[in-house]
Design goal:
Chain lengths: 440, 440, 440, 440
């Protein structure tokens, strides 16, 4: 039998296992740098499958991590792990300090190095709790309040571990090295930079990653082998400091940090569009003030900007910084802006895109390849750090889409996905590796 | 010896006891409707002093309470009481449900009814934790994070209990009834309405209350026997509901509740001034958005408006509501506004003000009466509900100021006071009662 | 016959003449520093009545004029004078350059100096042109587009010239000197400063001025002999300079001065209220941008702030300046702020107020004196410059109100007044002078 | 000799004549619907060259004109024509009413219909008047204050009349019909709709238009034969109506239309970007308020939105309308929005683009064709109405760029161009016509 069909059958035979993995991840979602249980389960599974496993400080270089939670928050999270079915023997001291993420390596003799990346973190949202929402109805909705796998990274983990199993089962047919990178803190664009800085991409010849995507809007296939133009991005934390005063007694003595933040929020939305390409700006959160009758002396905003090119992103970042400082001055306050996440723009290698397209059309004809097989992409992804590093030394990289139906868009509290996508992802990923390492 | 000087000596002899009460209150501050420990300590003390004691639903009529915390929050607070030195035998089931506040009654035969009011709640602020700040330096700073006696109600409690003791010691010289009202939830103007609605003021002939005030700005005395014109106020909670969307992928699909709130915050500050008198508006807190890369679908604001008259306050309230709804429509959102606190304006009875002035000048010459002994007052106080109720049936009411030095203004995190003010408050309050009930 | 009743009858006999003067002024209104026709008619009339007449640079010191129009605008206005029934022989070269305003002096031997002031300028508004509006219906609406006597200074001129006539008729009964000051550019608080600087007040013992006011709101009399607390004010012209760009082609290259001005306008409205007293702020006009598809590189705002005290006005001015600069920085622009008008706060001398009250109650009983005869006043008036100058050397000054019914408020396009007020004003003003100069 | 080289030589021989035409147009610029002098000169010239000439209501269908000035403005402009060297015998009554624009038709027997379009209107900007600016230095700067050919339509007119002359000289070599459309009111996207509605495009087989463009930024050639994706656009006039009040006396009685407009201006800038493609928004002008001390009761804004597709433009338009209405409600005002200009998006026919590219490369090798010969274009042009109409019945249409150096960008007050571009434009346009009509 054709090895690709063999891979496909293996993937389908893992369906229930993949669903179980996805759902246990969905039930206990962990946001960036908190993925302790997630990392422990991945490390355990990769170990069982015979992979060489890197964790903790081996994965992410310490000085390049961005947006790391406070030690208190990390510790509080750690304390709840035992009651959530965590294999505590795999939770290292590093993980407890927020060094999450796992890399599994399968060495299969000489040959090229092929790497895949799966992101593993959740979002700070509270999952919908109505009967309309399948995860709630079927009992696998998030147990972690304020935290939800609303972007589908739970399915990425399941695809990654399924792919790991398929590859371990066909390892004697592979010639070269497989690296499976389970990246933390993709949301907020905080995790990839440190993995790139650790050099894990420096020997990679072929690098692929995927993200699930809705099957009804952008693409017309089951798989888009490559995408063009993820947006460069910067994540800004902005603090406004003012002066409190009794709002009834002496309003003229206050310097209102909340008014300053509101001025900034509105002006940020109005940064002029750039003629050079797409731009974006979002004031995602704002917290300000201490009490109703006190002139607010503090406000905090989480902002992100994006640009189709690094230059446009830079333009947006500079305008945003200037606005925050000016807005603070409007009410006699001061502002401080910190960059807590960033990602460059990125472009898939067309040769690798076409190789994957041809492979799917030839060997996995049950999956339709998108007509626009190198389609536009207006999200942001810190995978650019990894792709750029691979491409910098001559390797090839692609960022793909795996389509699935969704009852509600990603990043909404009603998000869910069709778990048949898990089999498809495993099939395609394992086939890509076999295509590179198996046919020489 | 003159009875007034006797009262004064008693007050001074209680200095250390008063300081101790103030400091234990300062260490465990409780915001409105959470004053369980506070109420228990007051109830215990009044009972020991021989007062008839009302608590729980006896104090505040249930349907008129505003801005009550959720059952979960109340219960969580209740759980921490034992470890904070609370006399748990005085914590009733009502208190556990947020029915805080205590009324102590001392019946001394026939005669008029004279009532005093002391407010007991703290503010949602985190106390300064540096060596510059005496409460921190001397070890009696707040142990309840995010909660602080920053308005001086801790000193009011100490004055109230000291006055209770002095009056109990001179009770054979009194003819009539004393009511000491320890009111919850004055901050946010939420507690007095229910006490008034319960009818506790309906037999009161003379009613006095005081607030500490800085000795260096408004007044030039130690005591201001009366004030003119506390501002009427309304406290508004505003919710903005929008539609989330991925900020990078589909910004056009979102309806940004945080932008709506920011527009509202800025427009609220700009409500036109009123030619009829003082007005105020403060957006005290704003919380919006769920994540940096999600178009915010929710925002929440705590707002207050004030007016020198009830009409001006009504004007401010109406403009504020219209602004919130319009601001929501700016970004395709909806707004809902709830009134969670309110107070009318109030005016002290000049006859009673002058009676107190004369009494102090004659019998307590060690205290200077403010030149402007019925001075302007631009704070708000829900005591208006109590004063208006007393005045409605022909009683007389005053709202006074007790001056003290403060290293930092009220409602700031560095607030502290000179504890000598405690003796002064006790002296004056007990003397007022004696002046009414003792000399007939 | 009592001289006061004689004065009163004289005033009433002048009714038609006064109405005619008011209406010709109403038909040809002139805004500040443009009052050439107005000044010429006044100068002509005063000359005919035997007054010594000062005009041009004799009235206002050149270097203290504020907000003077451009030479081109002045000249354009001058050119239209002949066709508007102007006595051109009284239009001096000074007037043509914008040195408007007239002072008439009547010397009646030894005695005190008593001065009256009448302001003469109109507002830049377009008068209502519907049949509902009496001036339009009766044919005496403004013929000068964009210009209207909407504050009633036309009636002040008529009162001034009527008073001049009455005084000239009773001059043998007067002992001392009368000064009638017809002041230009009161709107915008631009004219009085220069008259004060010229020293015309330095020998004045008694100084009175009046403004018509609505009879249904503030006061309950026909005359308020004095007012308390006109607001101090500053008039600010603000220019925003940015950078133009094609709005479709290169929006990112622009620095949008109009957005900056809009940010400023909104933030100015939100300057925190002052606990020390009344404050005001108004962005009266905004002009920005050159074309629909060009990023605006220029915007201009006319702003005014006010305060119950000079300190509060100073606070408002400082906040306003800071806001304009910060708002400019929001969009990469610059702002420049010029102070083009100002007035101090002012207070009437109570002794003079009571003298006028007593005189009216005794001698002109047909007129009711307001109960609150020294009432609050939240307008602004540069008369403060004149009053303060009189008071500085020991003279007494009052600012009064003459009540009349109005179908629509002052400063609206439907404003009109009851011309019976003219007789009343003449009676009262002439009586004040007689009271001072006639009864010694 | 090759006919193309012949055309090229003719074009060069006309250089001085073309410069003269461009400069007389530059000196007397006329904005949309005011192009009376411009149209008269064009009509005269086309008549002299033997063209059949359409003017007035023959050109633009009356009911489809947008953004037409008032009769008073048109008449005032008409009055100044004689003193500006206008051939008054060519100024028709229609032109006086704002029916500007001219179509010249050259009938050369059977064959296809080929049309060219030249836009003729100026911008409402005041031209730079410093020695640095060549038109000022050399004496041909605008004599019409507030009006300037800052987009280069003066050069388009010169190209059009030069092309008209060349074609008339080679008319015996042409087989078919030439239509030269001199379109009014392109700025603001107001003129093309009416020409399309008049049916002038309904028999056109080939249609070309051009715009000058800077030679240093977008393109690398002398000519771009076609462009992709002019933005669809809508031009909105927005009126805000409020309620005036004296800003000092009764600010609470006003409804501030200027504040409403400022809120709208800022919110419009913040309309969320669209993931489907480019969007734009510009508040080009704002005029509000009548006087410094009057709460503004009126404000007027000129706004434009754009979108890469008609759908995106529709999204922007709908959001803009909603914002204006909500902003008005913020201050108790009302808003009315009128659409005064619009243009659809448009795409050049690739076959025609390539035909022109090949023609230039073969026959006019002195001109470089842009590498990206069908390049992106983020301006807006109402030529889409004409192109879409041609394409609707199977004709082919292109929108091209003619590059020239510019000392300052289009739509700036320092704009100028290199007049060598005139020869190039005439060569290329005449060659296109010859390519279509001459070689059959």
């Amino acid at each position: 039998m054709d090895m690709y069909q063999n891979i496909n059958q293996l993937a389908r035979s893992l369906h229930q296992e993949s669903v179980d993995i996805r759902r246990t991840m969905h039930m206990y979602p962990e946001t960036g740098w908190f993925e302790m249980r997630t990392s422990a389960i991945i490390a355990k599974r990769l170990t069982e499958l015979g992979y060489e496993v890197l964790t903790g400080r081996q994965v992410c270089r310490e000085d390049t991590r961005m947006g790391v939670p406070s030690p208190e928050e990390l510790e509080a999270h750690y304390q709840q792990l035992p009651e959530q079915g965590t294999p505590m023997e795999y939770v290292t001291e590093d993980m407890r300090e927020g060094f999450t993420g796992v890399i599994g390596i399968l060495r299969c003799g000489d040959g090229p190095v092929a790497a895949l990346r799966f992101d593993i973190d959740a979002l700070p949202m509270t999952e919908n709790a109505t009967q309309d929402h399948r995860p709630f109805r079927e009992g696998f909705a998030s147990r972690n309040p304020g935290c939800m796998h609303a972007c589908g990274h739970d399915s990425h983990i399941a695809m990654g571990l399924g792919t790991a199993r398929v590859l371990s089962e066909i390892r004697e047919h592979l010639h070269g090295t497989v690296k499976l990178v389970f990246q933390p803190a993709e949301e907020g664009a905080r995790g990839a930079k440190g993995i790139a800085a650790s050099g894990h991409m420096d020997d990679v010849d072929f690098f692929a990653a995927t993200h699930i995507a809705p099957d009804d809007t952008i693409d017309d296939g089951d798989i888009t082998p490559g995408t063009y133009g993820s947006l460069a991005t910067a994540k800004l934390d902005v603090e406004f400091h003012g002066k409190a005063a009794h709002a009834g007694g002496f309003p003229e003595k206050g310097c209102d940090a909340l008014q300053a933040a509101a001025h900034a929020a509105i002006a940020l939305a109005g940064i002029p569009r750039h003629s050079g390409g797409m731009s974006r700006v979002n004031v995602g959160t704002l917290r300000g003030g201490s009490g109703r009758n006190v002139v607010p002396d503090y406000a905090f905003m989480q902002v992100e900007v994006r640009g189709e090119t690094t230059e446009i992103n830079q333009y947006m970042t500079e305008r945003a910084c200037a606005i925050c400082e000016a807005a603070a001055a409007m009410t006699g306050c001061t502002a401080s802006v910190s960059i807590v996440g960033e990602a460059p723009s990125q472009v898939s290698d067309l040769a690798f895109v076409e190789r994957i397209r041809d492979m799917i059309q030839t060997h996995l004809p049950q999956y339709r390849v998108s007509t626009e097989y190198n389609s536009r992409n207006w999200g942001s992804e810190d995978i650019g750090f990894l792709m750029n590093r691979v491409q910098a030394h001559g390797g090839q990289a692609v960022y793909m889409r795996t389509m699935t139906s969704m009852p509600s868009a990603q990043h909404t509290t009603e998000f869910d996905l069709d778990e048949k996508a898990l089999d498809k992802g495993i099939s395609v990923f394992a086939s890509i590796i076999y295509n590179i390492l198996g046919e020489s």
